[in-house]
Amino acid sequence: MNREILFRGKRTDNGEWFEGSYRFSRSAIRETTHITSGYGNLFCVIPETVGQFTGLTDNNGVKIFEGDIIKHNEKLFEIKYSTEQARYLATLPNGVFNPVAMQNCEVIGNIFDNPELLEGEENEV
Q1: Its pTM surpasses 0.90
Q2: Strand (E) positions, the chain?
């Protein structure tokens, strides 16, 4: 099996997104969450923004991460991981999910930078 294990998080120092390996450390003083590249770059990231790569890409070749907002058939979905189903789901704001929405879709944002995208009646069932 050849599968890319990759995480993404928003850096604490400049707010930019960074992709790499996930690293969490805890000391008596504090807990820190890092994303590190294979080249020795290590950045503190905001823990709430860390999301794993789903292994899928959109129609434009953009990697789909947990927390992304995708557009499929004119509806907007948030990508979430379901521990109950042990898989990633594309969910509407009301919790309904579409098992095929991650196919033929486009990443248009994420829940951290663009939460307003999931608001509005055009996204109702």
Answers
A1: no
A2: 7-10, 17-26, 31-36, 42-44, 51-57, 63-65, 68-72, 75-82, 87-91, 97-98, 106-110
